[in-house]
């Protein structure tokens, strides 16, 4: 059987061999509790702090501002709830967008159920949030603005630095979900001008279940998890040392590989996109403007996206119709709908997301398979029902 081709790197990435290597000591001899005073504890603490340095370096941050979490979902939840608990009152207001990850959107909905008002700013047809619309949405009682850095379905990069300027002038903290952008494009917390930034390890060849929230010093935010005094009293719970070690190793690797993402991986994505549009009639790219080097979101006329994902999988190509969380729910993509795309364009969309492990040979093979799958499904959908 030919090798399977993994083009779903926005859902998750394979753990890098060097990451696995970095995790092994903490799964073996270095088993101490990082809060313990003795040598066992100190060894574990050293692993955690080295990883913190690597993550901080990746985003141009001070190490004291990086707090480890259980992943992007917790970081996003914490940014929102923590801000509410840190400074909120009933009737307060949060501004976000219609294209956020469910970890933000569902949290906003839960906050609404508890009396917080939420404005969800729309995006234009290109998939970009208008900073002017964010400015217009901010009110006297706005306690937080949350706008993702890059969208997980289209890869479109949002004008976060412009929005940060608006938020700063209005005295409102800005959170950005940078889970998809970190490790794909340069991310610098100072250049972005944000106050809170979410990251996740498993999108950059690290382990699952570990991430971080970067908190600019002085940002009002209450702990999300209470208990012990870990993470400078900001996030209770014994540190997941093996996962944190892996995150640190992945962050170091990602920092060194940014040129490869912007060069070779971006060229592979373009090769795939142009190849698909060239050989399959009735195709289009969803989203326009600056985007991540790794993602292409395509729609093909008269194609059922979900059926195509299954057919591609049977042929050994892993792709998706949107985010891994929403695929499976059979809900059409809220991101593409938010861009105002017609329902049939949304239904026929496919997301291909590349990683550094992909090769030109894989891309060409995936193109052949995609061409055949689309042709076959279109023929099937034309044949009369019996
Ligand atoms: C933009 C974005 N935010 C948050 C998350 C959630 O991160 P995690 O899987 O680490 O909880 C994801 C994962 O799909 C994502 O793509």
CATH architecture of the largest domain: 3-Layer(aba) Sandwich
The secondary structure category is alpha/beta
The secondary-structure element order is: EHHEHEHEHEHEHEEHHEEHEHHEH
Biggest sheet layout = 7 strands, mixed
Whole-number total of structural domains? 2
Principal-axes shape call: globular
Share of residues in strands: 5-15%
Using only C-alpha atoms, the radius of gyration works out to: 21 Å
* Cofactors, ions and other ligands in the entry: pyridoxal-5'-phosphate
Give the topology.
Layout: E1 5-6, H1 17-27, H2 39-58, E2 66-69, H3 72-87, E3 93-97, H4 102-112, E4 117-121, H5 131-137, E5 142-146, H6 160-170, E6 174-177, H7 189-192, E7 196-200, E8 211-215, H8 230-233, H9 241-279, E9 283-285, E10 295-300, H10 305-314, E11 317-318, H11 334-338, H12 343-347, E12 349-353, H13 360-382
Parallel strand pairs: 1-11, 3-4, 3-5, 5-6, 6-7
Antiparallel strand pairs: 2-8, 7-8, 9-10, 10-12
Bound molecules: pyridoxal-5'-phosphate (PLP).
Pyridoxal-5'-phosphate is lined by residues 71-73, 76, 101, 103, 148, 152, 177, 179-180, 200, 202, 211, 323.
